[in-house]
Amino acid sequence: MSTSTPTFSSEPTPVAAPRNAVINSQEQATIGKSLIIKGEVTGSESLYIDGRVEGAINLPGNRVTVGRNGQIQANVNAKEVVVLGKVKGNVTASDRVDIRNEGSLAGDVICQRISIEDGAYFKGSIDIRKANQKEMNGMATGVSSKSEEQSKLAVASA
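RE: above sequence
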């Protein structure tokens, strides 16, 4: 009968991993309306911004959502960026950028997919890149710099 008696050890029992990983990927931190952050925001979870951020936002594997009250003066690097508020700065997304109807983005965008709803404000350039275009980027830059040099020479000789 000693097998049915529980044994206690001084070490804690390991906690089992979460059963549903989808729930964990939905977790997000929130910067509320009254918060003002100046500096760099980095991390490994999604972020909802309803306050003000000045500086840089670097969440490469996650989503950054700028709420209706959110005001961002920063360069943003994330997997997904959703804009409902105001963003001034360049946005780099490894997946997609959504600018909703009340959203405003002034800056250059680099992403794979972009959506700009009717009524949204956007001023800047858009660079659509495929998932593995980083290798091709160097070659494309080399080609464009040669053509730019040729056009400068043509203008100079005219």
